[in-house]
Write a structure and sequence with these properties.
This is MurR/RpiR family transcriptional regulator. It holds the Pfam family HTH_6. It comes from Vagococcus allomyrinae. This protein is of the alpha/beta class. It has two domains: 76 residues, Winged helix-like DNA-binding domain superfamily/Winged helix DNA-binding domain (Arc Repressor Mutant, subunit A), CATH 1.10.10.10; 154 residues, 3-Layer(aba) Sandwich (Rossmann fold). A five-stranded parallel sheet has the order 2-1-3-4-5, sandwiched between helices. The protein has a two-stranded antiparallel sheet with strand order 6-7. Strand 4, helix 12 and strand 5 form a beta-alpha-beta unit. Helix 7 packs parallel to helix 13, helix 8 packs across helix 13 and helix 9 runs parallel beside helix 13. The radius of gyration is 20 Å and the shape is globular.
């Protein structure tokens, strides 16, 4: 999604200062995409706290995510050389995903999983479902009550069973799966927490979610064909990182109990 479309989507909560600042950033995207929050503040004559709040108004958890979004916008303006291999694209996606994970505070997500009475897991496609199913099995191995929803029908059936003491983990490539958007908004109204795992871009599911885990994947075009290939290696990497943070927390808690016994 372009910055212009992002502004239109969130315009009801943006004031004139916000619009002027975002317009300036859009006009100087090449310069702004690589700036720290302090450097960008100096360029647009705004404070760090203002830029943080502006990032959050646009649906990002903080400036780091907004900065990566700007970098992705800038990258799309650069033509990828035809000599760039599929393997090189994969390594680039892995690096971007690793950078996102390194800057993410996993503690709120880990706490949400720990405190949930039931964890519901759903993937919007075959690959997403396979990765989410493995996450479910691993969470059950450390004592969590997990309900895997293998089909859209089961997702719809179980919505009425979810309460504000539960957590829904959903994996989606686009974050724009139309047939579940209304249901997710309903769950949010009922105060059911949502952890969304989506491609790194502004998207509807991420904007609804309480917690966001992003991954980067670049489609690889097949020559003389309309087909493109998406790799889900980085989705697997993001989910595995979430699991490892939870297991680290679980192990720490168990060792603490043993030492206090």
């Amino acid at each position: 999604m372009s910055l212009e479309h992002l502004i239109i989507e969130h315009k009801p909560i943006l004031n004139q200062n916000d619009l002027d600042t975002l317009l300036l950033i859009d006009h100087h995207l090449g310069e702004c995409a690589d700036l720290t929050i302090v450097e960008l503040g100096q360029k647009v004559h705004m404070s760090k706290s203002y830029l943080l709040k502006l990032s959050q108004k646009l649906g990002f958890s903080g400036y780091s995510e907004f900065r990566y979004y700007l970098k992705q916008l800038q990258a799309r303006k650069v033509v990828v050389p035809m000599t760039m291999s599929a393997q090189e694209l994969l390594m680039s996606d892995v690096q971007v995903t690793n950078d996102l994970l390194a800057q993410l505070n996993f503690e709120p997500m880990v706490d949400a999983i720990r405190q949930a009475n039931h964890v519901f897991c759903y993937g919007t496609g075959v690959s997403q479902q396979s990765i989410v199913r493995q996450l479910s099995k691993n969470l059950m191995s450390v004592g969590k009550i997990v309900v895997t929803l293998p089909t859209h029908t089961e997702f719809m059936t179980n919505i009425s069973l979810m309460s504000q003491d539960d957590l829904l983990i959903i994996a989606s490539l686009s974050g724009e799966t139309a047939e579940i958007i209304d249901e997710l908004r309903l769950l949010k109204m009922r105060q059911v927490d949502l952890l969304a795992i989506t491609q790194f871009k502004s998207n509807t599911i991420a904007s609804i979610a309480n917690y966001n885990l992003f991954f980067q994947t670049t489609p690889y075009q097949i020559v003389n064909s309309e087909s493109v290939i998406y790799s889900f290696v980085t989705l697997d990497l993001a989910v595995d990182s979430l699991l490892r943070h939870y297991i680290d927390h679980f192990n720490h808690s168990e060792r603490t109990k043993e030492s206090e016994a």
